[in-house]
Write a structure and sequence with these properties.
Elements (H helix, E strand, L loop, with lengths): L7 H6 L3 H29 L10 H29 L1 H21 L3 H28 L6 H26 L8 H22 L14 H14 L1 H17 L1 H4 L1 H8 L3 H11 L15 H22 L5 H19 L5 H29 L5 H7 L2 H21 L2 H11 L4 H6 L2 H10 L7 H12 L3 H21 L5 H4 L1
Length: about 500
């Protein structure tokens, strides 16, 4: 039965308690996760407001290892979830995440933060297959498009709260309170643990404690994937899109903080919210980077359900291609401008593309998975994240330091102006920018100095490089979309 034969409320009525409980747990997990991810790129490289002061390359290494753990573990944990139980997987997930968030609050070195990232990555990895498997099991071809759209909307309700709550929790440069973000994430995870024990129903016909051992499950996981060549091609092609996608969270906050003048966005927030806008702004009146990132989640909250309904009758692959096209345009656009409102609009454009393609990605895998292997196949959906996210962070850090590091460009400018090399090397980034401003016209400030460095060094080139990977993935997906459709695709 196709979604065209059921009305909106009929589709809603067909969604079970398991569907709604899984959505609630995922919303809280995403709130905790993205609150941390919204500010962690800033915290890791910050040297003047209580951050760790790591290099962009070190930051990229942490996210790369985190990505590999978070995205590869579900390939196998999905099989274990089907064998040993969904609830047991959730308990393990929450324990690892709580430990990881608490370690982030106390981490004082690269190694400690790496371990914290691995713990959170592992916990998130174990969490995804039982939740996504429960969603896929509770839907049918008759309501899958709307169901995955609702799933995407509800989890982004948590994700959209994250940047704003994290902005409030981390304080400002004068009184940084970064650890509040990590403690808050741990508390949300404790709440999720309690709710899962009270509300989450174990799906039937999943717990099989006897039989195949771990090694055999591991081997069969790889064999099943290798035999499904159509799925394997799909996962490899879309990896380039996730390469680009994850840099919105891992690198764009740093780019916004260094290069984009968001005082115009800050002025609008003050006009609307008055004094309540204070936690959302830096001391200079500019909107914090995570606030612009938060536009992604807010857009999803506003548009995910109507767009999911509108595109529910279209072929999954054609919707994926359209969404990827829009997202690539928005992604490149965010890095091509030093103006806050333009960057904010391009984040909105990116979010529209994300709404169209991300739920369809999950729907495509979930609806093409055999009924008895839903969690396993949803585990496979993390392979593109593993490839794209890890590769993206493996190269984006060095690329940023070469093509877009404002600190590097500022110190090079001062050296060319005749300043002492040893003195320049010891300078904080803020001091270097202040010196450049002092050498400009009277009344020049850090934003003027940044605009000068933008014109001289063209940091936007970085986004053309990263966006070209997403474009290649888009072209590959267009070619795949021309292949014959599967039965699930046609339904």
């Amino acid at each position: 039965m196709s979604s065209a034969r059921l009305g909106f409320w009929q589709q809603i009525a067909a969604m079970s308690r398991s569907f709604w409980t899984a959505n609630l747990l995922d919303a809280l997990e995403r709130w905790a996760y993205y609150a941390v991810r919204a500010v962690l790129p800033l915290y890791l490289v910050d040297v003047s407001s209580g951050g760790l002061g790591l290099s962009f390359t070190q930051k990229g290494m942490i996210f790369m290892v985190w990505a590999l753990v978070q995205c590869l573990v579900p390939m196998f944990s999905g099989g274990y979830t089907e064998r040993y139980g969904y609830r047991r997987s959730l308990m393990l997930s929450f324990a690892a995440n709580i430990a990881g968030y608490l370690l982030m609050a106390y981490a004082s070195s690269f190694a400690e933060m790496m371990l914290a990232g691995v713990l959170v990555g592992f916990g998130t990895a174990v969490f995804k297959p039982p939740i996504q498997g429960a969603i896929a099991r509770s839907l049918s071809p008759a309501n899958s498009a709307l169901g995955f759209g609702i799933f995407y909307w509800i989890i982004n309700l948590g994700g959209s709260l994250a940047p704003f709550s994290a902005s409030w929790a981390r304080g400002d440069a004068a009184q940084p309170t970064w650890t509040w973000v990590f403690y808050g994430a741990a508390l949300l995870t404790v709440l999720n643990l309690a709710l899962s024990l009270a509300l989450f129903p174990e799906p039937t016909h999943t717990t099989q404690k006897q039989g195949k051992g771990a090694a055999q499950v591991f081997t069969e996981t790889l064999v099943v994937l290798w035999q499904d060549r159509a799925l394997l091609r799909f996962l490899l092609v879309i990896s380039g899109f996730w390469f680009m996608f994850m840099q919105v969270w891992d690198l764009l906050p740093n780019f916004l903080a260094e290069w984009v003048d968001t005082r115009d966005v800050g002025a609008a927030l003050r006009a609307v919210l008055g004094e309540a806008s204070g936690p959302l702004l830096d001391a200079n009146g500019a909107a914090k980077p995570e606030i612009l990132i938060g536009i992604d989640g807010l857009t999803i909250i506003l548009l995910a359900l109507p767009l999911s309904w509108a595109f529910g009758k279209r072929r999954m692959m054609s919707t994926l291609v359209l969404g990827m096209s829009i997202a690539v345009s928005g992604f490149v656009g965010t890095g091509m401008t030093p103006y806050g409102w333009v960057a904010a609009f391009m984040v909105f454009v990116f979010a529209v593309g994300e709404i169209l393609c991300s739920p369809k990605f999950s729907e495509y895998i979930g609806m093409n998975a055999p009924e008895e292997r839903k969690a396993l196949y949803m585990g496979y959906s993390n392979i593109p994240f593993a490839i794209g996210w890890a590769a993206g962070n493996g190269i984006s850090g060095p690329l940023y330091e070469h093509f877009a590091s404002r600190t590097h460009f500022a110190k090079a400018y001062l050296l060319d102006a005749g300043h002492d090399a040893a003195t320049v090397e010891a300078m904080s980034p803020e001091h270097a920018i202040e010196l450049i401003a002092q050498g400009m016209h009277p009344g020049a400030n850090s934003f003027d100095a940044t605009a000068l460095l933008w014109e001289l060094n063209h940091p936007w080139i970085l986004w053309l490089i990263l966006g070209s990977v997403g474009l290649a993935s888009l072209l590959g997906m267009h070619l795949l979309s021309r292949r014959p459709s599967t039965s699930a695709e046609k339904s």
